[in-house]
Amino acid sequence: MAAMMAPVESDDEHNNYSDEETDSLNGHTANSPTPELKAWDLFRVLPPQKDLSAAESEATMNLILRWVKLLICIIVFLVVLGCGVLAKGTILFMAAQTSGTQQVDFCYKQISNTAEKRYVAKLPLVERVGWTWALFFALIVPEVLSLMRSIRMCVFKSFKKPPLGDFLLVMSAETLHAIGIGILAFVVFPELDILKAAMLTNCVCVVPGILGLLSEHGSVNRTMIRVAIDIVALAAQVTGFIIWPLVENEKRGSLWFIPLALFLVSFGWWENFVSQNSALGFVRYIAEIKERAKKWRYFTYLFASAWKMIVLFVTMIVVWAVKEASANDLFSYFGPAFYEHKIQVMEVRNLTEQPQPNIEFFEVDSTYVSPLWLLLIQALSAHICYISAKYACRIMIQGFSFALAVSITVPMTLSVAVVLCGLKTIDPCYFHNVIPDYLFFRLPPVYYLGEFLSNQHAWIWLIWLASQAWFTAHIWWPKCERLARTEKLFVTPMYSALLIDQSLALNRRIDDSEEALTKHIIPEKSKKPPIEEFADNGSVSSNASDIFAHGSPSNDHVTRIYACATMWHETKEEMMEILKSIFRMDEDQSARRMAQQWLQIVDPDYYEFETHIFFDDAFLPEYEYANREGPLVNAWVKTLVSTIDEAASHVHNTHVRLRAPKKVPTPYGGKLIWTLPGKTKLITHLKDKNKIRHKKRWSQVMYMYYLLGHRLMEKRIPAERKEVIAENTYLLALDGDIDFQPNSVQLLVDLMKKNKQLGAACGRIHPIGSGAMVWYQKFEYAVGHWLQKATEHMIGCVLCSPGCFSLFRGKALMDDNVMRKYTTRSDEARHYVQYDQGEDRWLCTLLLQRGYRVEYSAASDAFTHCPEGFNEFYNQRRRWVPSTMANIMDLLGDYKRTVKMNDNLSFLYMIYQGFLLVGSVLGPGTIFLMLVGAFVAAFQINQWLSFSYNLIPVTIFMVICYFAKEKTQLTAAMIISTLYAMVMIAVLVGIMMQISEDGPLAPSSLFFFVVSGQLIVTGLLHPREVGCLPFGVVYYITVPSMYMLLIIYSLFNLNNVSWGTREVAVPLSQQAMAAEEAKKGQKKGAFSGLLDSFRSKPDSSEPEDGAIEFSLTGLFKCMLCTYPKVVDEKQQLMRIADSLEALNRRMDSIERSIDGPAPALGSRRRSFALLRSAANNETLGTLAEAAETDEQMSDDSEGRYATEVPIIKRDDLTNPFWMEDAELKKGDVDFLSGEEEHFWRDLIDKYLYPLEENKKQKEKIASDLKMLRDKMVFGFFMLNAMFVMILFLIQLNKDLLHFNWPLGVKTNITFDYNSKEIWINNEYLELEPIGIVFLFSFAALLFIQFFAMLFHRFGTLSHILASTELEWYCTKKVEDITEDALMAKYGIEFAKDLSRLTGSSENDTKKEQKERLFSIVNLEHESKKKQQEGSLPTNFETRFTSMDFGSQANPILRRISARRGTMEAFTHRRSSVLAERRKSLRMGSMDMGRDSIPEVGLNRRIDSVVSWRDTDA
Predict the structure, then answer these.
(1) Which of 140, 178, 487, 782 has the fewest C-beta atoms under 10 angstroms from its C-beta?
(2) CA 870 to CA 884: how far, in whole Å?
(3) E strand or H helix at 768, and its extent?
(4) CA gap 139, 1035 in Å, rounded
């Protein structure tokens, strides 16, 4: 077979890879040789096929999301455009009504029945006063909103005060802007017709244009072209200053205020157009003020918003005083303007009409609410336009839904105005009963289109529009991240009501991209990836690489993700889930790295990745290796080692064999280091509890201090760089059974990038498993995330980011009172509950108290195994319930300081959490009262009897929980839960009957329908999780168990601080067994002791058997014809085999320390194997012969070698015995560097030394825990007892204490024949005391949570849509079809396909499918192939350099070749990259000289890089 396998070895030679790319690690035979397959053992297990159903489901969901995003894109475009046109049209309509010269053709229908006469209406003074005030209120609405936002930011968040000079500069610019807005609104626009006024709004870019011109920088040619265009555009803007005053000068002299107004208005957007790269000093100075303004903007706008309202008010008064000669009219007519008054209408006749009759005058009633309606419409439309435009920018649809909509707002307004004015001119009654007949726009002169363009110079508006488009061109090329904050999108907080579209375009930030995301994202090819530069390079022995270990500042902004998982006693299936998740992350990261290094893609989502698994109790207990040379790893570690190849095979859909792990002895135990196919590291830390503190919290302390303390803070780089690195370093906390996708992690990273104050983020946890308990948890987790976590996220912060799947920011963990306080040892009883039982909740509490935010992302899915048994579930919640209450009480106890420190927490949010805490404490009493009422309704019994029926089982359970053992408590809980589940079914039937009796409007009926409807609607809003709704039935019938019995069980077992899940019974040591036996002996009664004194006590040293024997219940025993007892041969052989096995392991270790093999060892190994096999199969005859033969062969050899073999001295940091375990595979051995070894020793000595508590300490802790338990139980019992008794006694007097329910009233009509009277009696349903408590507590809570869920759902949908790309051709922009855009679009998917360990061509795919069909030929052919040990980067490099991009036979090319330009882009990019690499290699060889590098090796390397089939190259 070896000869058969030899020829194919070269086929996979290129797939071998090494840990740290040293040649010594490349060989197969040295580390993990492929076992030779025998002919009888060729039968195989096929590698798992890819789950196509999941892929198809994901593809279907992506297609649905694309259609949804397209629909949202169209809707948002229409909303922005429609609201923009409506806001601009209504504001110009309002301005037209303030003019004293405005005359409107009046509809004849209110005056006469004939259309022969023409009437006009002129607005009286009182009407114009009303419209002036309405216009003023419309102008200050954005300022009011800006003031409110500034107050909220300054009150609930921190702020800084600006320098006086900066403050005065900003206030001056805002003052000039407000004056310009006032002049335009109250002077200019009232005197212009609707068309000219709308056109003029495109001329407000003068100051931004000047500042942009002065800020130009870059190459000379490019700068000159831009300067020339800027000058032309500025000239076009300036023409707007004079064109209308010249045209309309004879009619309206006030139009000469246009130049002043437009110039002053344009000061409002100065900040967005200055650059620090300007060649002019004063421009750079202003730009520095702009950068500083980001820190104190909201404090400044506290004053600026109020001041602008005052300026607008003063401007209005001054303008009115000048125009109307008296400003008092504004105040004297303010009240009458919004009450009924008369409008004068007069008849208009032609001058040529002879004779001139008397002109008729009429008065009609005004529609005095018209100004208020227009004000409301304008304010709402402008604000909706603003928030819709902001939403378009946030979900990455800015080009179409924002830029296009804003750019065509004025043309659409002109089009609509032309149509409306034309209809009004043709028929004055066209808008009768729609718009008051005396109100309309100021109509333009009646011209044909050609005359209007020439005589009125309207053609020049197209130039104004083009110049504005040039100055706002940045809105078409956004660079901000997904879901960017308002401060990242817009410069100033709000918009301008008068110029809604111009303010949105000019206020949209130009510099909205983070330079670090685009400038320094690609790792340099000549260096290691950033995370390896940041790390210790896996090694250990020297610091020779420190020059490169520190990395360069350009890589500090790169996202670094450390996956930190904690393991203990996970099963193989659970380990498989997390390992598959790690391999998926490895594949994704490798594809992104290859896309950047080979395709030169700038990936904003690029990250570096490394995995650390911290294995608690990784070694066998001491009594199991007492006869060996040192500790060995336990079965769970061996399971992990044996499972990792299988997990890789599942992910890569082919048989994958990783190289054996590198073994590293450490002060805390050891490390196993794998290099995964994508070249990321998987490091498993094996913790010996005799050397380091065990349990999950201390594992978290280990990786926090190791990754953030040792590997970051001990680097010799400036502190500023460390801060940047820490801000972009994230710890992904995982459990050992979690299952997730790379996209889920990316969504959490997006949240982190969006908010620098975000300390932690968690995803949606889905429990998996089977059984009724899992069904309950599926619904419980769903409701908890849908309502509870979403509400916390929206109105405050999430209080618990679960440790099974959460992302923590490194900088936040390094803050004061977080990481250091997390190392606090539990010395008090309360600490054991708060610190150790709910470590993830306590860590989040520390982050919140330091001012960081914790968020929840519903789109980030992860799956974890949950308890499937009743006992395991109760024990898990026994740990969670007290820790949750303890941490909430800790947070509420210091709420004043926390609210002051944390901008995201408010006093109202603390009240909400306090309400939930009270509800949790009083939950058992509430459920008890609910059951009492349910028994009454369902079984038709009285109150006291129902009370007794429920009190008896609860009391019994409390007594059992206090006195009995845990097993007995769980058994009682299970029995009572079962009984209550059956009762709840009966209660459900009773509720249905009561609903049918009382009607759907009864309080209980409404409550049932509202709760059910809320849950159904919530489930439907989570379409992927709607399958959890049917499990609500299980949730309902277990309410008494989970909200009453479980709380009782948790509090009564407060003194039990064991983990409760995945615990394995550990055998007692000999001393413990002796102590246990002594304790049992003390418990025996006197009679039992008397019987023991009479029992025979034979001499144990010489056991005897008798041919005849009899006994009486152990009291007496008589043996006749005794003889020595024969020892069982099988037991004796087993003991011999164990001894030989221990001797064999010792001899194996000796073999490695001396030269030459020992011949006797082979015979000794065979002898011991035969002994064990014989012992198991009880074939003693064959054993005897073999044993004799082996003894003859080994006697001489043992004598020969016994005196020559030296005894090996074991050192835990040099040659620990566990590294010789064959089940850990024969990987390389490495050692820690001196720095890392000192770090671990210091960390263990200071924080992580094993806790060796003596008997007194344990007794004291146990006593303190019991005392804490008794206090909590007493308080819990008293609170619930008083609560139950008060409400129950009130319930007994419900005839006196109740409210009449206003709905569902039953009316009885009685007719008295005697008195001839009709009696009408209304029978009201009564709202009882228990119903009142439920209605005002739970109903209010559900109301808050439901509406918070709706807002959170909207945010989640936005997040998903922002991550969804529209890949249809109709959605592409010009820049989308450039080479860089095509690389960015398809590059990562292309890199992932080329990196696959399976075949990438269609022939390879067909070959794999054919080989899956069973035949003897395929079976033998498969046996000759080596197991896959490929490297994803190597596969990519090989295939990329040799792929024929002109062929369409490859399925990869067919998937991405949507257009011919895609293939051309890939071909051109490959040619340029490979040419650059060939040039760099040749230059390197010239510098190094021919003597330093063998020519053959150099040529081979160059040939391997540049050999590709590409005609262009």
Answers:
(1) 487
(2) 21
(3) strand 758-768
(4) 54
CB atoms within 10 A of CB 642: 14
Q: Tell me the pLDDT tens digit for each residue of 638-696.
A: 999 999 999 998 888 888 889 999 999 999 999 999 999 999 999 999 999 999 998 89
Q: Which two tokens stand for residue 1343?
A: 């109301």
Ramachandran quadrant class, 1022 (left: phi over 0; alpha: psi -120 to 50; beta: rest): beta
Residues whose CB falls within 8 Å of the CB of residue 920, separated by 6 or more in sequence, listed in order: 881, 884, 885, 1047
Q: Of 958, 961, 952, whose CA–CA distance to 932 is shortest? A: 952
Look at phi and psi of residue 229 and say left if phi exceeds 0, alpha if psi is from -120 to 50, else beta.
alpha
What's the CA dihedral at 386, 392, 393, 397 to 10 degrees?
Answer: -150
The three-state DSSP-derived secondary structure of 1446-1505 is: CCCCCHHHHHHCCCHHHHHHHHHHHHHHHHHHHHHHHHHHHHHCCCCCCHHHHHHHHHHH
- pLDDT for res 112: 72
Cis amide bond preceding 1023, omega within 30: no
For the residues of 468-529, what is the DSSP string, one character each?
HHHHTGGGGS--PPTT--HHHHBSSSS--STTHHHHHHHHB-SS-S-HHHHHS-SPPTTS--
Distance, CA of 470 to CA of 1442 (rounded, Å): 45
Question: What one-character DSSP code corresponds to residue 340?
Answer: -
pLDDT in tens, 694-751: 889 999 999 999 999 999 999 888 999 999 999 999 999 999 999 999 999 999 998 8
pLDDT of residue 780: 93
Cα torsion 771, 773, 775, 777: sign: negative
721, exposed or middle or buried, with CB in 10 Å at 0-12, 13-18, 19+? middle
Check if the beta carbon of residue 114 is closer than 8 Å to that of residue 108.
yes
pLDDT in tens, 1296-1314: 666 666 666 667 777 777 7
* Residues ≥6 apart with Cβ < 8 Å to 1255: none
**Going edge to edge, which strands form the sheet with 729-735?**
662-666, 669-675, 681-687, 607-615, 559-567, 729-735, 805-809, 758-768, 853-865, 739-740
**Any idea what the Cα angle at residue 458 is, between residues 452 and 462, rounded to 5°?**
140
| pLDDT of res. 352 | 54
* Cα separation, 1294 vs 1301, whole angstroms: 13
Mean pLDDT for 926-950 is: 86
The beta strands (E) that lie in 782-852 are given as 805-809
Q: Judge contact between 968 and 871, C-beta under 8 A.
A: no
User: For the purposes of burial, counting CB atoms within 10 Å of the CB of 220, is it exposed (0-12), middle (13-18) or buried (19 or more)?
Assistant: exposed
3-state helix, strand, coil in the chain (%, to 5): 60, 10, 30
Under a CB-based contact definition with an 8 Å cutoff, are residues 47 and 1336 in contact? no
Q: Residues 1385-1391: what's their mean pLDDT?
A: 77
1445-1449 — which CB contacts under 8 Å span 24+ positions?
Answer: 1445/1470, 1445/1510, 1446/1511, 1449/1401, 1449/1402
For residue 34, what pLDDT is reported?
46
* Rg from Cα positions in the chain: 41
* Nearest-10 crossing angle of helices 1432-1442, 1379-1394: 120
Cα separations (Å) of 684 from 522, 873, 949? 29, 29, 55
Instruction: Find residue 665's DSSP bridge partners.
Output: 670
1306 φ, ψ (degrees, to nearest 5): -100, 125
- CA-nearest of 821, 769, 579, 756 to 680 is 579
CB-based burial, 1088-1116: b 16+ in 10 Å, e otherwise: eeeeeeeeeeeeeeeeeeeeeeeeeeeee
State both tokens at 700.
């978290």
Please check the confidence at residue 1096 and state whether its pLDDT lies above 90: no
* CA 1019 to chain CA centroid, nearest Å: 20
Strands 607-615 and 662-666: unpaired
Asked if residue 569 lies in contact with residue 563, where contact means CB atoms within 8 angstroms, the answer is no
Three-state secondary-structure class, residue 1122: strand
Between CA 169 and CA 274 the distance in angstroms is 14
